[in-house]
Design brief:
The protein contains 4 helices and 5 strands, in the order βαβαβαβαβ. It is α/β, with parallel strands linked by helices. It is globular.
């Protein structure tokens, strides 16, 4: 199965722990993709988010959201993407969860 998390909440919200727990469990069942957009773009500068990558999740972020928030140097384990690509990924995933 393919799981997609769309994260628009900032990394200081209660969602971080929930996303981490879900990722730990769902990577055992298939592919986990986490797409950071809106205030979720701030995850791209938080070193702790490497834990998602170490668990096996694919990490993407909306480059426009990052640009709007002045983020110039996202951490190297994030892939730059767009909301257009997000719309295509959504169609390819079995389950989509949104955190905002």
């Amino acid at each position: 199965m393919r799981f997609l998390f769309i994260v628009s909440s900032d990394p200081f919200s209660k969602d971080y722990a929930t996303i981490l727990k879900l990722t730990k469990e769902l990577v055992k069942r298939g592919e986990v993709i986490i797409f950071f957009t809106g205030n979720g773009a701030y995850y791209t500068i938080k070193p702790e988010t490497e834990e998602f990558k170490k668990l096996g999740a694919r990490l993407l972020f909306c480059s426009h959201s990052a640009h709007q928030r002045g983020i110039k140097d996202p951490l190297p384990f994030f892939e730059s993407s767009s909301t257009y690509n997000l719309s295509k990924i959504m169609l390819e995933c079995d389950k989509v969860l949104s955190f905002n």
